[in-house]
Design goal:
Glutamine Phosphoribosylpyrophosphate, subunit 1, domain 1, 590 residues, 16 helices, alpha/beta, 35% helix, 7-stranded antiparallel β-sheet, binds 2-deoxy-2-amino glucitol-6-phosphate, Rossmann fold
């Protein structure tokens, strides 16, 4: 949620900042802006709109100077207006601040500051430059003023700050929001995500809560929040912006759907000893709780099923934003398995931190190397599916499922057998792409004026119904609900009328007979039935064929046509599937 970048070096800053922001746009895309320092003053351009629009309208690349900060916004406090876009400045326009997070006590601070300071935006952020303006009058340096300022802030923040009074440095600090610094031969960077760094960045270091970094052209130094110098370990970046391209696809979402099969194979590359240790710990734990949000939570629901089915181990899934409300039941006998593509989701981090505090062990399944969740976990499995840029999670879901299969198989001492099977499934997923592509695209166009969709399934595929519905909602803005097929008759059936699409995930497994009865109940009320199955049934108006396989593997096959249906529905409705309205990929606010 909001992407930050800062650069200080020998090269013109603006083009570098813009390029970095292009790779951070997945974090927010309702407004964009950059500020540089040149001719002894802060030069700033910002506006509403996607980065490309703001860049063109304001010629962002032309801002002079070799130091600067940039921001892409996902609005939390204050509407999407030019005044609310970042960077924000103080009354003297000497300080420029970019912020990701939420300042909880901004109202109190604003009412105190308003007597002396002119506020121009509705944001929580704007209190920061005004506080800095005050503290700079009693500080020896910008970093000292930043330390004094953050002591007054409640809430979460990642901040990159510069001042025309000290035009050679950037100061950055964070709490509950990510920041990473990067070194290159021609200057140093600081960003919300190392994905923003150009290939010239050869060393990176992740910042921890309450650390402050002072970034100058040829050095980066770190301090604790009481001003003590600390040394941090630099590592090689795991990937960089050069890797992130749509190749020949029109959208990242389609490219990433097409990468599902290789994501399964990527996730399978793990240290078997580690998987086995984790499986043993899971079996030993008295209580297993999965926690995650959105798509990752649906993956967790499949995990819950697999742990029970393959290893007879009961677990529960708690939505991360609700985790706190169950804190009374968490203790040292609890093992929490947190799933997160980004590893930065604030709700997940919050739940995991709380569980850790209460003595629980934290395992995580994460895509982004060295993300905050990965760093705070006792054990981590990486998804290894490469950067996922489309806001809608697709390939990372397949990777999460793969890791959950592996853990469940290891728990029942059958890891090698599971790996063999997963390899076969990955080949089936690949072959099946070409089979249904046109069919699904036509279906998306045929249903493009429908506004309500119901996704139903039983057993292990129930979570896939929910995930299919989430995908459609996110990118096409049609209302969709996913539910266990047997639950329809307990209320939702009242909404089924002539022509309402019911997407039934009903492979020929032990749930088929009962699911067909539930489909029958909707068809009798006029529903338009789309069957996702390996077996044709005349009850279907449309059949999306998938190959037959042992039933526990169906989720890896059934999810792909649902992702494609969502993608083509977005296109048919004229929406941008990569940047759906109101959403952002990495949700770093609670
Ligand atoms: C998925 O398509 C969504 N963009 C969203 O639900 C996402 O899965 C959720 O925000 C969790 O993200 P995470 O996996 O990075 O924690």
């Amino acid at each position: 949620m909001c992407g930050l970048i800062g650069y200080c070096g020998e090269e013109p800053a603006a083009p570098l900042l813009v390029k970095a922001l292009q790779h951070l746009e997945y974090r927010g895309y309702d407004s964009a802006g950059i500020a540089t320092i040149a001719d002894g003053r802060v030069q700033l351009k910002k506006d509403v709109g996607k980065l490309g629009e703001v860049r063109q309208k304001h010629q962002l690349d032309d801002l002079p100077g070799t130091i600067g900060v940039g921001h892409v916004r996902w609005a939390t406090h204050g509407g999407v207006t030019q005044a609310n876009a970042h960077p924000h400045t103080d009354c003297t326009k000497k300080v420029a601040v970019v912020h990701n997070g939420i300042i909880q006590n901004h109202r109190e601070l604003r009412s105190r500051l308003e007597a002396k300071h002119a506020f121009v935006s509705e944001t929580d952020t704007e209190v920061i430059p005004h506080l800095l303006e005050e503290h700079l009058t009693t500080s020896n340096s910008l970093e000292q003023a930043v330390l004094k300022t953050t002591r007054e802030l409640e809430g979460s923040y990642a901040l990159v700050i510069m001042s025309s009074q000290e035009p050679e440095k950037l100061v950055a600090t964070c709490k509950d929001n990510p920041l990473v610094v990067g070194k290159s031969r021609k200057g140093n960077f600081i960003a919300s995500d190392d994905l923003a760094f150009p290939e010239s960045v050869t060393q990176i270091a992740f910042m921890e809560d309450d650390e402050t970094a002072v970034v100058v052209k040829d050095n980066i130094s770190f301090f604790t929040n009481d001003g003590h110098r600390i040394e941090k370990k630099f590592i090689e970046p795991s990937w960089n912006s050069g890797e992130v391209s749509k190749q020949n696809y029109p959208h990242f979402m389609l490219k990433e759907i097409m990468e599902n099969s290789q994501s399964i194979r990527g996730a399978m590359v793990q240290d078997k000893k580690l998987i086995t240790h984790m499986a043993m710990d899971i079996l030993r734990a008295k209580q297993i709780i999965f926690t995650a949000c959105g798509t990752s939570r649906y993956a967790a629901l499949v995990g819950r099923y697999l742990f029970s089915k393959l290893a007879g181990k009961f677990s529960d899934v708690i939505i991360s934003s609700e985790f706190h409300y169950f804190s009374d039941s968490i203790d040292k006998n609890t093992l929490v398995i947190a799933l997160s593509q980004s590893g930065e989701t604030a709700d997940v981090m919050d739940g995991a931190k709380l569980a850790k505090k209460k003595g629980a062990k934290i395992f995580s399944l994460v895509n982004r190397n060295n993300s905050s969740l990965a760093r705070m976990s006792d054990r981590v499995l990486y998804l290894n599916c490469g950067a996922e840029i489309g806001v809608a999670a697709t390939k990372s879901f397949s990777s999460q499922l793969t890791l959950l299969y592996m853990l469940a198989f290891a728990m029942s001492n059958r890891l090698d057998e599971g790996l063999e099977k997963l390899n076969e499934v990955s080949i089936m997923v690949e072959k099946n792409f070409s089979k249904n592509g046109k069919n699904i695209e036509e279906l998306a166009w045929r249903t493009k004026d429908k506004n309500d969709f119901y996704y139903i399934a039983r057993g292990i595929n129930f979570a896939i119904a929910s995930e299919g519905a989430l995908k459609l909602k996110e990118v096409s803005y049609a209302h969709a609900e996913g539910m266990p097929a047997g639950e329809l008759k307990h209320g939702t059936l009242a909404l089924i009328e002539e022509g309402v699409p019911v997407i039934a995930i009903c492979p020929s497994d032990h749930t088929l007979k009962e699911t067909l009865s539930n489909i029958e109940e909707t068809r009798a009320r006029g529903a338009f039935i789309v069957g996702i199955s390996d077996q044709y049934n005349p009850i279907f108006h449309e059949w999306i064929e998938i190959p037959s396989i042992e039933y526990i593997y169906y989720p890896l096959l059934t999810i792909v046509p649902l992702q494609l249906l969502a993608y083509h529905s977005a296109i048919a409705r004229g929406k941008d599937p990569d940047k759906p309205r109101n959403l952002a990929k990495s949700v770093t606010v609670k």
